[in-house]
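Supplementary Note 2. Why include the ligand at all?

Several targets in our set were suspected to adopt different conformations when bound, so apo predictions alone were not considered sufficient. For every target with a known small-molecule partner we therefore ran a joint prediction. The input for iron/sulfur cluster is given below.
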Amino acid sequence: MSLPQAGKNFYIHTFGCQMNESDSSRMAELLATDGWTGIDDPEDADLILLNTCAIREKAESKVLSALGRYRLVRNRRGTRLGVTGCVAQQEKEKLLERVPYLDFVLGPDQIAQLPAAVSSAAAGERLARTGWMDSEEYVFPRADPEAARGQVSAFVTVMKGCDNVCSFCVVPHTRGREVSRAYADVVQEVASLVAVGVREVTLIGQNVNSYAGGCTFAELIRRVAAVPDLVRIRFTTSHPQDLSPELMEAFRDVPQLMPHFHLPVQSGSNPVLKRMRRNYTWEEYVQKLERTRELCPEIAMTSDIIVAFPGETDEDFERTMTLIERVRYDNLYSFIYSPRPHTSAIRHEQDWGVVPHDIAVARLERLQKRQRELSLEKHQSLVGRELELLVEGPSRTDATRRMGRTVWNQVVNFAGKAPAGALARVRIEGATVVALSGTEVSFVPPKVPVERPAPRLNVLPTVVASDACGG
Ligand code: SAM
Ligand code: SF4
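The joint prediction is reproduced in token form.
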């Protein structure tokens, strides 16, 4: 990262999901073309952006408390403050009224207007630009391959928005209707990323398997897999109702598609699923998972679960516990239901019955405790095996060791010399709930060396299961 240069240093604080991480990268690229430099310390920033998440109340209050901290930097050095992302879209100009020291508010579809908003802010104008663009006017922000040079892995947006109406979810209100990106554009972007050394892409969208950019999502995966030298493909997030047999078969047929499937279930109880408006029963969900496992036997499965949804009884919750015993997920992202504005659940929660907070916490703790045991068992079952890893660089816990990911997306810290971007064979010798450890056996270096570490976007650590966003 470059040294601070007075006047045009920016810092982006990213909250929430992969869509936001990807949007932050695009914003960083736009600012860089305008002569700005990204820095790691907000204390030296002339511009601070908070790219926000509105999925749960806790995510939203974190944004407000971060704004309070950045206010001190603003008072000291005149730093401009902007809020982008889902809270911006949800609150619109009300946020300017609520936070008098805030300079601008930009919704997720207004990223292209960032340089103009920054100039207006410099001239002392406060503005809010929000609203969704529909398919005719929306242009997907394209990653600048030069900015991705040095990254082993990159996100590629394939669609935006969501046409579902899950009763708990604010996303359709903050991200708008589904718009898919043309497949040729996606493939071209992937090829340009691979040309600068990227080895793995994660295709992202709120509901990728309802992708409609000129082919099905499974077909898009096959087209992306045909990009020479791309070694790994992942995707997130999927809705069980749109999971096609063709997509399940892609796990068997496309070697570059990694055997890891994040398929949010939300609850193991049919009455709860019905009130959530998820359009499937737990039996249909399990049938799809089991079919996918038949096609790809070692596939890792992860999911999202909401506990204490309005009206959830002890019996409903026990059904969720039974589901996790049956599926034996590799990992879970679990949350206490959080009432969100504009959703239908918030309108009905008094009729359905609000679950008392102490019961909600006890359910979450029990679910997470059991999942930690299951995750540890999965990790321990790998000890003694030799696995292929895509190496990302030095270990975050010990810089003398290396870090890579298995095909199932587990982190492995290991003794070895494999450079970033290499495919390494590593013997697994230890396991904890969060990671594996081992020793390198051999490696194949990447064709295009990974020359510098990936740019930091100040993404908050999101590894705590209760606090992360699976989507
Ligand atoms: N599109 C994905 C799907 O269909 O499941 C999910 C995307 S959402 C951004 C990520 C996760 O946040 C959801 O799967 C859900 O578990 C959780 N979530 C969404 N709204 C929530 C709420 N109001 N309270 C608690 N958790 C919520
Ligand atoms: Fe869409 Fe997922 Fe939210 Fe449902 S949970 S409305 S599918 S983003």
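The longest helix spans residues 357-380. The pocket of iron/sulfur cluster (ligand 2) is lined by residues 162, 164, 166, 169, 171-172, 206-207, 239, 471 (CB under 6 Å). Comparable summaries for the other entries are listed in the accompanying table.
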